[in-house]
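Convert to structure. Protein one:
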Amino acid sequence: MPIQTILHPTDLSDRCAEAFRVACSLARDHAARVIAVHVAEPRTPVGMAPSPPPPEGHRGGMEEWLRRSHQPAPGVQVESRVE
């Protein structure tokens, strides 16, 4: 079965930036796409109810920042998601 999609989870650290370059290289070699995912964990103090998810505009801004910080190699399709 050929590789079609490579999932790149990221915490936006320098180590993840290097892993993203490797994911793009593999995607280029296999004509696959990369999905870069950052999970934005809400900060909830112990014993308190979870906070509501951020407004959609905030999520869109984070997705845009993720897209700008994870520039793909030429010819590689990258989709950015914030969950």
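Protein two, convert as well:
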Amino acid sequence: MIYRIVKYGDPVLEKPAEAVTEFGAPELEELLENMFESMYAARGVGLAAPQIGISRSIAVIDPSGGEDAGRRIVLINPKIIRAEGWQVQEEGCLSVPGFHEPVRRAKRVTVRAQNLKGEFFEMTGEDLLARAFQHETDHLNGRLFLSHLSALKRDLIRRKIRKMMKSGEWG
């Protein structure tokens, strides 16, 4: 099942997601598969549950964009435990379509999370994967990539989005 991606302006995107406490249920496995399917349909490399209107601390990432099933990553209740270096790259978001801006993020991060069975693991990523870890973890904490922009740039984008909302182009 492909979920509709929730867009900027929906309150679910701006509140911290609820921790997952029950693992191994078929419903959780189905949700994860649907999240990957939704992410691929939207041509993304990461998707957090709040982006499909579900306030749970779950994110899926595939830096290959669906080209290599072995690169699929599930993060449940993730926390970034280490960050090193800096990179500035153009970043966008499925919940803020049409807007891409340079964002400064750590170049290498280590995340601690749980898998489908509730087992803890740590994973380190660099460059695109590090960016995806940070971007999706931000979503689970109620933050959008816009919060990493200057106030001026953020306000400009918000004004454009409000104008699009009024004209019915956003929704």
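The mean pLDDT is 96. The CA atoms of residues 46 and 61 lie 4 Å apart.
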